[in-house]
Design a protein that fits this description.
This protein is α/β, with parallel strands linked by helices. Helices cover 53% and strands 10% of the residues. About 2% of the residues have low confidence.
């Protein structure tokens, strides 16, 4: 499964994609040069390729520092093999460099493909929203009856409610709550979500078509990326996922920002601090 890079808040997703492509092309040129070396000049050629690769890695890491996460830079550029190449003997360097060049090109290809696919997926202007668990539990209406146009001040614009998988995990836990209302709400929400995503979990599903009170409402599940380590506090994790979605959605965001929906005061503070537009709801009377 391709690993989607994590964009820094406020970066231009298209600019990051362009930068990754340019970095990939520079590395492919180094790889192709060393493959075409004649046996007579192989020693000098490998030494030159190593220096060129090291320069590439330094420049690539510098260019990407303000655009993607440090973990992604380590995965794509400054890998353990990069550091090993700094101290390995000559014969080991030749083998390691050949492997590293091939694997870095493949890794960059995967990263470019995943980011491009995500940009295409989130390219139509919509009102993007992420709601924390309190929204699903404390709303007076069931998930399919909520007036999203009113809650999100969306008018007749289409709405996409993105559901981080940790919210599903929390709702699963609340099915066993001692509070009968909480238990009932959790089960109802999960039943609706389970019905919508019964046959596919990687595509947005229509919760409600356009109607006389608002635009189309779709739901989309957002899974944890491979190797992702969740924050210790679930509320922090949900806000973190929302900031990642906001960066990736970019120009598709109607109004320029994702809307974070919650009934909880502390969670609304977390979301605002993270740069999200927050919709703080009042508890039903």
């Amino acid at each position: 499964m391709p690993h989607l890079v994590r964009l820094r808040p406020g970066v231009d997703r298209q600019a990051v994609l362009t930068e990754l492509r340019e970095i990939r092309e520079l590395l492919a040129a180094i790889q192709n040069d060393q493959r075409l070396l004649s046996p007579v000049h192989r020693h000098q050629g490998w030494a030159h390729a190593l220096v060129t690769y090291q320069t590439w890695a330094h420049d690539a890491a510098r260019k990407l520092t303000d655009q993607i996460s440090s973990e992604d830079i380590e995965r794509l550029v400054l890998t353990p093999r990069y550091w090993l190449l700094q101290t390995a003997d000559t014969e080991a360097r030749r083998l390691l460099l050949s492997i590293e060049l091939a694997e870095r090109v493949d890794a960059l290809d995967d990263a470019i493909s995943a980011l491009d696919a995500q940009i295409q997926r989130w390219s139509t202007p919509e009102v993007f929203a992420v709601a924390d668990t309190s929204f699903y539990i404390q709303s007076a209406d069931t998930l399919d009856k909520v007036n999203y146009a009113q809650v999100l001040t969306a008018g007749f614009a289409p709405v996409r409610l993105l559901i981080p998988i940790i919210v599903i995990d929390e709702l699963d836990g609340l099915k066993k709550s001692k509070d009968p209302r909480v238990r009932s709400q959790a089960r109802r929400c999960l039943a609706i979500i389970d019905r919508l995503f019964a046959y596919a979990t990687d595509l947005p599903m229509t919760l409600r078509p356009p109607h006389d009170m608002g635009g189309r409402v779709t739901l989309e599940l957002v899974f944890d990326p491979p190797g992702h380590v969740r924050a210790d506090i679930a509320d922090d994790e949900i806000v973190d996922r929302a900031t990642v979605i906001q960066a990736l959605a970019g120009g598709a965001l109607a109004g320029g920002k994702l809307k974070f929906v919650t009934f909880d005061t502390s969670q609304s503070f977390r979301a605002r601090h993270a740069g999200l537009e927050t919709v703080k709801l009042r508890d039903p009377e």
